[in-house]
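Title: Prediction job returns without error message
Component: structure pipeline
Severity: low
Priority: P3
Assignee: unassigned

Description:
Job completed but the reporter wants confirmation the result is attached to the right record. Sequence as submitted:
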Amino acid sequence: MKMENGVLTEEQLLLMAQNPVFRNIPLETLRPLLNREAHLQSFRKGEILFSPDCFQKSMGLFLRGSAVAEKGRGSVILNTFQPGNCFGVATLFCSSTRYVTTIRAKSNGLVAFISDEAMTRLFREESQISLNYISFLASRIHFLNHRIDQFTAVSAEEKVVLYLLEQVEKGNPIRMEGSYAKLADMLDLSRSSLYRAMDALEADGILKKEGKLLTILDQKGLEQWTNKNNSGEDLSHEMETPDGFADGSRNDLIFCGLLQQ
């Protein structure tokens, strides 16, 4: 990545203000704070922004371009990033010496980095930022619980339903970023099991599948299905800390990776 000089443009400032960490703070308050603490770096398509052995204790917020968070040399895509999205939030004040995912650029772009020391100064000067930060981490834990439900689901249908409920919160129809093979790998299913589960949901009139475009036709029915087949128990209290993860457990590493993004 390459360091870039200059202050934030008004468009870039508005984009950062929409991020959950900086939401509900007047622009006249944010402008001097972010211009002082944010450092811009440009990146090129294919470049690795963060990796397990090379990362910085900083929150990164995309101002231009796109990237993915991946595991296993790209075999599993955990998340996609567009302008306004951020990464590295959970590692700001973490003692870990490794970042558990790889952030790879999908296009040329620009990211604003704010270090742990800079965030500490922002917390002290604007209390709403610290409250937003706590709220954001809480939402990640809630998201992680949904992921735990996916990986502890008994049937293929249950795993697919939980995935669809998570994705439909971002918009309907759902546009898949990767292939069905990658989705099957992420859900720990065989491709045939994934296809059968989706076919069953289509037959029930809940889902319409057109290539990589998934349309939820009956969201209430989807929610009722998972309520009927899932206990809804919060498993976060049973989850081991990162130091206690079982060796060789792919799902444990994915859980940790999702939290660290």
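Comment from assignee: result matches the submitted record. The first strand starts at residue 2 and ends at 4.
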